[in-house]
Automatic annotation (TrEMBL):
It comes from Phrynosoma platyrhinos (Desert horned lizard). It comes from the Eukaryota. This is Histidine N-acetyltransferase C-terminal domain-containing protein. It holds the Pfam family Hisat_C. Signal peptide: none annotated. Residues 69-187 form the Histidine N-acetyltransferase C-terminal domain. InterPro entries: Hisat_C.
Amino acid sequence: MPGSQRGQRSTHLPPPSKAPCRKEPRGDPVSLGWEAGILLVRFGAQEMLERLDAAELALAEGGFCPEASELLSESEVPAVVLAERFRREVLPGQTIIQDWQPFQATESNLGLLRKKDLRWLVDRKDAPSVATLSTRPFPIPLGEGWSYLNIDAFGRRPAHLKGQLLRHLRLRLPGLRGGVMCQLFLEPELWLEMAAFCQAGLGLELAKGYSEQYLLESDI
């Protein structure tokens, strides 16, 4: 993917109420300037699974009702993701960001992504407005049994993102036995609300303060 530039900035301050300005370097023509807030939490996989039902019940008693989510089958992904409205209104710059990597939304790139055991969730299969993409957990050298779980979120509706996060946990945690570092990439203005949901609602530990992923693409 020639021409791509990726960077990460970190701070312990919360994100601004509005998305930060997107600045492009002079003399470097780009087609995509995109920033994502990075929400990093940690928890024990089996402990989280065991208390997930109780956590959801407590949330429901407090008035929280997760929005419906639908899991796309492998054969359904192209029709949804390559639809013009989805590419234009949901994906940043008509680009799929998967675990820090940009992929132009094309049939050939979906073929590459199909090999990665990804899970796509949408709020509805017919003209979705929110989508999330989780990558199969992979081991990391933090101790025995530790894994990373990355989730990329596209869309600006926190109620839908909360429901989809819960479902990704149910999809990805079975089979894991150790600790999990879960990294959620999302619109910067949603960081505070989602961080509060993870901590107060699910009892997850915030592993790091607010940070950003900044991506420029001149030739995806």
